[in-house]
Fold:
Amino acid sequence: MTDNKPVAQTLVGIACLAAVASCAMPEAQQWEPSAAEVQKTNKVEFSRLTHTVHFAGGSPALSGAETTRLLGFLDDSDIVYGDHLYLGMPGEDALSQKREAAIRRILAKRGVLLTATTAPARGTAGYVASDEMTVQLERYVVTPPACPNWSKPTGGDPDNTVFSNFGCATETNLGMMVAQPRDLVVGRQPGPPDAQPALYGIQNYRAGKVVTLPDDQTGGSTPGPSAATPGASAAGNTGGSGSGSGGS
Structure:
């Protein structure tokens, strides 16, 4: 009869080692998305670039070196639609206005227009020295989210957490195609509506000035048969009963 005691002891030893190992190994943690992985948003930051233009004392003209510096600033800034360009002036005197005109001519050659001109009071933060002017470029810059994001494991997810790449395409595409990044921060103030076209249409309809559709032969359009008679219907009235809505 074979003695199985050594085999049994070996099996018991293996079982003990497995038990110890299982106790020592940490339990596998479930993947949990961070806020950055769940919330995909574009980051919009305000930026201001300032260039100082120097004039010779009492001169309204820019030197060749200053003109080159200003053109270099415009090239490096890569001005695009939605950017705002401001000119800081030391005052509103005749010399300052001539210098402003000189700067405007240089900007116009590059197809750039000033948004506004300012002349801060002496002692304020935006004050400009007597023989200097500042060109300030203000813009909003969009930084898309860190995408793509494939950090979430592809295995089973009993908690049904959000996919790590969820929202990447939507936010990235929005940030890349928005014309004015400032619109992502605050909306624009709409201007007054132009209600005159709609009002004229109602008035012409009530007056019987209905425009007929063009036909295939003439290609033109003519007013209705009673366009010259306000208050009459397009089909015309007979028998003097045309008091209608235009009677008042």
Summary: The beta strands are 43-54, 84-88, 116-118, 132-143.
